[in-house]
């Protein structure tokens, strides 16, 4: 059995969040429908929720 920790801190309501977990931290900019996340290693994830339960996600790696 393993334990995990996750905490989401709102910096600017509905716009900017700091996510802290047992694996590190990341920033999330945007709403729940469309947002960009950047982690502590510089990797970026863009996510968009589409109608009907579908979603689109793209990962970008720092070069």
Automatic annotation (TrEMBL):
Residues 38-63 are annotated as: Disordered. Residues 3-57 form the DUF4236 domain. It comes from the Bacteria. It holds the Pfam family DUF4236. This is DUF4236 domain-containing protein. The lineage of its organism: Bacteria, Bacillati, Actinomycetota, Actinomycetes, Kitasatosporales.
């Amino acid at each position: 059995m393993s334990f995990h920790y996750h905490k989401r801190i709102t910096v600017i309501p509905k716009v900017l969040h700091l996510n802290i977990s047992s694996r590190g931290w990341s920033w999330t900019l945007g709403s729940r429908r469309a947002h960009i996340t950047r982690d502590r290693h510089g990797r970026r994830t863009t996510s968009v929720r589409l109608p009907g339960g579908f979603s689109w996600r793209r990962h970008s790696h720092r070069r």
